[in-house]
Write a structure and sequence with these properties.
The protein is an alpha+beta fold and about 350 residues long. The protein is built from ten helices and 15 strands. Strands 5-6-7-8-11-12-13 form a seven-stranded antiparallel β-sheet. A two-stranded antiparallel sheet has the order 1-2. A hairpin with a 2-residue loop joins β12 and β13. The chain is elongated.
């Protein structure tokens, strides 16, 4: 009897385990999934429901990524990268297509005008982004993209006007390692022929040298910022740390990037592409929408009202005929009656 009782208990325990164990294991989330795959899946924002298809077996729970799913995921990743580099990053930034370096759309209240690369031969030294006020950016919106030199001349006049004292910022993001001495000398040599204030050029050169030398060199990822103001001059910052101000060079520094011999033709083209013909396109779109959609919406609304009023008459008559035949219902257990219509 004792042996039979023990055998019965063992069988009952096994039966319970057979019922409960699959339920418990079913809640274990991808415990054997590759850590690299999960990290990649999260970082690229992919939402492939087939990413980790779970299969249960006698040995427990496994998580697999089929060859077909892996290929699909890789293809999606490649397509997303291509789109990201060629278009605005999520609508909030511009990306330099030559270096894949991103620039935010806003910087301390200033708007991004355009981005471009600075090359020295085949070497992509740095990417540059230009920021200015919304007023300056808006001044280019009615101008034609086909007249690049005219648009950029208007831009230079706008930001160099002493009346408004507009601040224009040039942000340089390094893509290639350059020593502090070479970086300072290269920028100073570009500014020098555009101004007669040689002492100010030397001041600018020394500020750049001091700021970059403090971190060793202008290595990839280093950010040099130049805030240009007609009254204050050029304020130099390196990786967020202000170094000092070179007076009277705002016009000359801006011309390094904006005049006909500017060091970054790509920046000039980007500014025209992103800032010109904006108002014209917006105005024409608004006109089309106001003239077409309004008339169509009013006409369609009138037709809907007419059709509904005509269709509703026979329907209402039928409803009344049916309702007239409805009777009250009584609960036989309690004697409580209910009206046919509420």
């Amino acid at each position: 009897m004792m042996a039979q009782s023990t055998t019965y208990r063992v069988k009952a325990s096994v039966a319970w385990l057979a019922l409960i164990l699959p339920l418990l294991l079913g809640n274990v989330p991808f415990i054997l999934a590759s850590r690299h795959d999960l990290h990649s899946h999260h970082r690229h924002g992919l939402r492939n429901n087939r990413f980790a298809s779970r299969s249960r077996g006698m040995s427990g729970v496994t998580s697999t990524l089929s060859l077909k799913d892996n290929y699909s995921l890789q293809q999606t990743k490649m397509l997303n990268n291509d789109k990201f580099w060629s278009l605005r990053g999520g609508g909030t930034a511009l990306v330099d297509s030559a270096t894949k370096i991103e620039f935010e759309d806003k910087l301390d209240g200033l708007s991004l005008m355009g981005v471009g690369v600075r090359k020295k031969g085949p070497i992509k030294v740095y990417s540059v982004g230009m920021y200015s006020s919304d007023v300056v950016k808006g001044s280019l919106s009615p101008l034609s993209k086909s007249n690049q030199s005219g648009a950029l001349s208007a831009l230079r006049e706008s930001i160099q006007s002493p009346e408004g004292d507009t601040t224009t910022t040039f942000v340089l993001k390094m893509n290639f390692k350059v020593s502090a001495e070479k970086m300072a000398a290269a920028i100073a040599e570009s500014v020098d022929p555009r101004t007669s204030d040689k002492p100010a050029v030397e001041t600018l050169k020394q500020l750049i040298l001091d700021g970059v030398a403090a971190k060793g060199a202008a290595s990839p990822g280093t950010i040099l910022r130049f805030d240009c103001s007609s009254k204050a001059g050029v304020k130099v910052s390196v990786d967020g740390t202000e170094v000092g101000v070179a007076p009277g060079l705002s016009q000359a520094f801006g011309d390094v990037f904006l005049d006909e011999g500017g060091v970054s033709p790509a920046l000039r083209a980007s500014i025209v592409e992103n800032c010109c013909e904006i108002a014209v396109a917006t105005a024409s779109l608004d006109t089309e929408l106001s003239s077409s959609t309004t008339d169509q919406s009013v006409a369609s609304s009138l037709e809907d009202v007419k059709s509904k009023s005509v269709e509703s008459k026979p329907i209402n008559a039928k409803l009344k005929a049916v309702e007239s035949k409805l009777k009250t219902l009584t609960d036989h257990a309690t004697g409580v009656t209910f009206a046919p219509k509420l």
